[in-house]
Amino acid sequence: MTIETMTMQRALATIISGQDLTRGEARDVMEIIMSGEATGAQIGAVATALRMKGETKDEITGFAETMRAHSAHVHTEQQGLLDTCGTGGSGIHKFNISTASSMIAAAAGVRVAKHGNRAMSGKAGSADVLEALGVNISLTADQAARCLESIGICFMFAQLYHPSLKHAAGPRRELGVRTIFNMLGPLTNPAGADRQLLGLYDRSRTEVVAQVLSDLGLKRAMVVSSHDGLDEISISAPTQISELRDGVVRTFDIAPDELGLAVRPIDEVTGGDAAVNASIIHGIFAGNERGAYRDIVLANAGACIYVGGAAESLRDGVELAASMIDSGKAAAKLQQLIATTGEVAHVS
C-alpha cells in the first residue's frame, strides 16, 4: 500500500467519523488528488464525505492553497485587483451578470482579473459568453498579464490555468452533485487578486467562504447569495452578504430598494445560450435596455466598484455603474477587451 493511499484512507476515516481535517491534512489530500495519485473512488468518497459532514474553513482553505500552488500564474501587481468569479450552481438560467459587471467595473477604473469557465448552472458560462462577444478567451498567462496592464482587465479561462484539476473531472462528473470542488474555482484566481465579489449557490456558507478568502490573503471581498436562490445580488429578493473588510467578516442582508433599484420578478433576468446572453449584454451597454437586465447588472457592478475601492458605498457604486453605461464607457471597455485579446494573442 502506498503512502498516498494510506493518507487518503486516513482522511476518509476521519471525515466519516464526523471529525474535521486540519488545514495541513486538507492540503495533503488535495496534493495527492492534483498529482494524479488518487483513484477515482478515493476522490469521489472524500468529496462526498466532506459534503455530508459540511466543509470547514480550514478544509476549504487547505484544498484551495494546493490548487493555487498547482495553477499557472499571471504575474502582475496584485494590490487593488478584483475578480468576479462565482460558483455557479444556482440552477437558475440567468444571463452572465458577473461578466457584464466586470467590464463596467473596469470602465470605472477598477483593475479586473476575471477568472471563469464554461457553463456550470446556466447555458453559458463566462468563457462561453465572452467568446460569443468576440473576446479571445485562450490567452496564456503572459498574454493575460499584458492585456491587464494595457487596458485594466483580462480574462483567465480556468481550464487553461488549472490543468491538474483534470484528475478530479471524472469523479465530479460521475457524482453529479455539488462538492468542495465547486467552491474552489472562485478561490484560486491565477493573478492573485486581492479583492473579490463572489457569488455563492449556498446561502448558509457565505460567512465561511468569506473567512476562507481572508485566510487566503484577500483584503476586501463580498460573498453574496440571494434569498431567491441566485449566486448574485438579486433585484427580486433580499441578498445575504458576508463582507470581508479590515480583516473582519460582517454578514447582513440588503434589499433592492436600498440600492436605489426597483424590485422585479426573477424570471425577467433569465438568459439563454451564449449568443442570446451576448445580445443581452450588448443591449445593456448600448443603453437600449432599461429594465431588469440593466438593474441586476447595476446591482452587481456597483458591488464590484465598491469592493474595488472606487465607491464609498454600494449605492454610490450602483450610481457610478449607471454612469459607465450611459456614458458609453462600458461599451468602449468591451471593445477594448475584444481588440486587445486579439492583438496580444499574436504577440510571442
Automatic annotation (TrEMBL):
Cofactor binding annotation: Binds 2 magnesium ions per monomer.
Binding site for anthranilate 2: R172
Keyword Coiled coil: no
Known pathway: Amino-acid biosynthesis; L-tryptophan biosynthesis; L-tryptophan from chorismate: step 2/5
Cross-referenced InterPro entries: Anthranilate_Pribosyl_Tfrase, Glycosyl_Trfase_fam3, Glycosyl_Trfase_fam3_N_dom, Glycosyl_Trfase_fam3_N_dom_sf, Nuc_phospho_transferase
Binding-site list for anthranilate 1: G86, N117
The Glycosyl transferase family 3 N-terminal domain, residue ranges: 10-71
Residues reported in the UniProt entry to bind Mg(2+) 1: S98, E232
Matching Pfam families: Glycos_trans_3N, Glycos_transf_3
Catalytic reaction equation(s): N-(5-phospho-beta-D-ribosyl)anthranilate + diphosphate = 5-phospho-alpha-D-ribose 1-diphosphate + anthranilate
Domain Glycosyl transferase family: 79-331
Positions annotated to bind 5-phospho-alpha-D-ribose 1-diphosphate: 86, 89-90, 96-99, 114-122, 126
EC assignment: 2.4.2.18
Residues that, per the record, bind Mg(2+) 2: D231, E232
This protein's UniProt keywords: Amino-acid biosynthesis, Aromatic amino acid biosynthesis, Glycosyltransferase, Magnesium, Metal-binding, Transferase, Tryptophan biosynthesis
UniProt cofactor(s): Mg(2+)
Keyword Nucleus among record annotations: no
UniProt-recorded Gene Ontology molecular function terms: anthranilate phosphoribosyltransferase activity
NCBIfam families documented for this protein: trpD
Subunit structure: Homodimer.
Biological role: Catalyzes the transfer of the phosphoribosyl group of 5-phosphorylribose-1-pyrophosphate (PRPP) to anthranilate to yield N-(5'-phosphoribosyl)-anthranilate (PRA).
Assigned protein family: Belongs to the anthranilate phosphoribosyltransferase family.
Protein name, as recorded: Anthranilate phosphoribosyltransferase
Organism field: Paenibacillus plantiphilus
